[in-house]
Amino acid sequence: MSEVADFRSDTVTRPTAEMREAIASAEVGDDVLGHDPTTLALEEEGARILGKEAALYMPSGSMCNLVAMLTHTRPGQELVLEEWAHMCRFEAGSAGAIAHLIVRTVPSDGGVLDTDRVAGWLSAGSEHTPPTGLVAVENTHNFHGGVVQPMEALRSLRRVCDDADVPLHMDGARVWNAAAATGTDVATIVGFADTVSVCLSKGLCAPVGSLLAGSRDFIQTARFHRKRVGGGMRQSGILAAAGLVSLRSMRERLTEDHARAARIASVLAETPGFAVPSGAPDTNIVFVELERALAADVVAFAADHDVLLYATGERQIRLVTHHDVDDDAVDRLLDVLARAV
Ligand SMILES: *Cc1c(COP(=O)(O)O)cnc(C)c1O
Fold first, then answer.
1. Residue 2 reports pLDDT greater than 70
2. Burial letters 39-61, b for 16+ CB under 10 A, else e
3. Which end of the chain is more exposed for a tag (fewer CB within 10 A), N or C?
């Protein structure tokens, strides 16, 4: 079998046959003028599923997070988030470079923010100190291994934000995985946050696209900021059509990805040369420590055998399961890894 098994990320998923059909027959108009029926349908359905009043379609999750920052805050305010948050580490510095925010990172226990630590930084500002403009929480937390934020943590985060009158944004790129893993309605999870960004292009397989959801007033202002950063699209219904398939058909199957990630973690835990966090991963991401080899060498060896991996450290790799890696692909991965070390 020569097809490449790609475990680098769930972003590599390709649109399904159903999506390609939906794309081919999508009704379109000019969305910047507010006339693209398919984009409007996606925004309406996304908002309903997320339990928010309105949603806005954008090309990427990074843009949704940026537009959320621009809409919630003013330049010079502080943004409080976890130290490995995607919004501070992997969005090219947009919080500082474009939104002009001071980024206050808080260490965490495995990706779950400690409410007391966050509360210690929330401030209305003074003659000397910047006011907090926004708190952001990542769910699931990518670089802590797809960790699901416990409801209790979200509830207490909400409480301290309310006490300080600071808005709470959820970077919910993979909040679909959190919902599937816990069997919780996604609207309940994102209900703790004022606004949420979600990706349609990761586990849900759309070729492009994310949604930012929140109150009607918030989304109205967000439309202005999306335009300002160049995110107004025209016949975007071509892409939104695939996003509708994501919302309708692709959420329930995420538990299959979680089961495969659990299998990978349990086999590697028993394989000499590998260390994985104890217990099954919460969702579809497995970080693996290499005890006997360098990540670059393992990645190169695997690539020679048509298995693609992502090195996240000198002796660490990240494995992500998704729609386009089946049980055979997992077998090949485990076989190649065992031989690599
Ligand atoms: C993927 C991801 C995003 C958005 O990334 P884009 O590539 O800009 O769509 C945001 N947050 C997290 C946690 C992610 O994993």
1. no
2. bbbbbebbbebbebebbbbbbbb
3. N
Q: Which CA distances in Å does 43 have to 28, 36, 38, 209, 302?
A: 14, 11, 9, 11, 40
Ligand 1 center from residue 90 Cα (angstroms): 8
**pLDDT value at position 341?**
86
Full-model pTM: 0.97
Closest atom, ligand 1, to C-alpha of 141? 13
Atom of ligand 1 nearest to the CA of 210: 9
| Ligand 1 shell residues, CB under 6 Å | 60-62, 86, 138, 142, 171, 173, 199, 210
128 CA to centre of ligand 1 in angstroms: 34
Q: Which of 223, 193, 192, 231 is nearest to 71 (CA)?
A: 223
pLDDT digits (tens, 9 = 90+) for 265-301: 999 999 999 999 888 899 999 999 999 999 999 999 9
Distance 69 CA to ligand 1 centre (A): 15
User: Hey, whose CA ends up nearest to atom 8 of ligand 1?
Assistant: 62
Rounded to an integer, what distance in angstroms lies between the CA atom of residue 197 and that of residue 90?
Answer: 15
